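2024-03-11 09:14:02 INFO worker-7 job=invfold-0412 stage=load source=structure_tokens
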């Protein structure tokens, strides 16, 4: 699935966004820049949480600028993971599937496949608050991938982790992205991270 932002503009009292870019099918495109420059806002515009003042968003040349989030088939991993602390790993990953009306059998198969993909196969009954930061980040990634999104959006997913774990998770994200061949927009302020992960940097 290709993604194109064409003249997207959003104005706020303290900053404004003016961005155009293309992410080809299966690419990792990184938005690199300092905090407060509008990277997260751009992700939220792509996801449909924020409406742009001007411009158009295209998925495979289909204009989705004013489509609501649930009709865009986009997966988003938040900076703070946003996992449900009262739920176990299985329920966190399966949350979106339940909302989409998946059967119990299909949910179990999908969650098991994702746990295998993120290499946490025997963790389905663990409570997420008992997991390390790196494990929680993998669960957040699996949850975003569960409904088979066309586009994956990652908002500073490694910023809360220490340097060694960041490097390890960076490799994991790239492996998973390459395996699934999913078009990905990755946000970071870390130049080394951007260079290690990206096919394209904006």
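2024-03-11 09:14:09 INFO worker-7 stage=emit residues=202
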């Amino acid at each position: 699935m290709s993604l194109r932002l064409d003249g997207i503009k959003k104005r706020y009292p303290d900053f404004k966004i003016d961005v155009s870019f293309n992410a080809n099918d299966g690419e990792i495109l990184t938005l690199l820049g300092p905090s407060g420059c509008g990277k997260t806002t751009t992700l939220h515009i792509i996801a449909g949480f924020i409406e742009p003042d001007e411009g158009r968003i295209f998925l495979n040349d289909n204009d989705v600028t004013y489509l609501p989030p649930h009709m865009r088939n986009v997966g988003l991993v938040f900076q703070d993971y946003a996992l449900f602390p009262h739920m176990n790993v299985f329920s966190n990953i399966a949350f979106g599937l339940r909302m989409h009306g998946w059967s119990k059998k299909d949910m179990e198969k999908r969650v098991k496949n994702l746990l295998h993909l993120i290499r946490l196969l025997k963790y389905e009954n663990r409570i997420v608050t008992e997991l390390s930061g790196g494990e929680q980040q993998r669960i957040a990634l699996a949850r975003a991938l569960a409904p088979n999104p066309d586009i994956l959006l990652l908002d500073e997913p490694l910023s809360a982790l220490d340097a060694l774990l960041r490097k390890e998770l960076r490799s994991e994200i790239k492996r998973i992205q390459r395996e699934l061949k999913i078009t990905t927009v990755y946000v970071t302020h870390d130049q080394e991270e951007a260079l290690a992960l990206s096919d394209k940097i904006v």
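2024-03-11 09:14:09 INFO worker-7 stage=report msg="The chain has a mean pLDDT of 93."
2024-03-11 09:14:10 INFO worker-7 job finished
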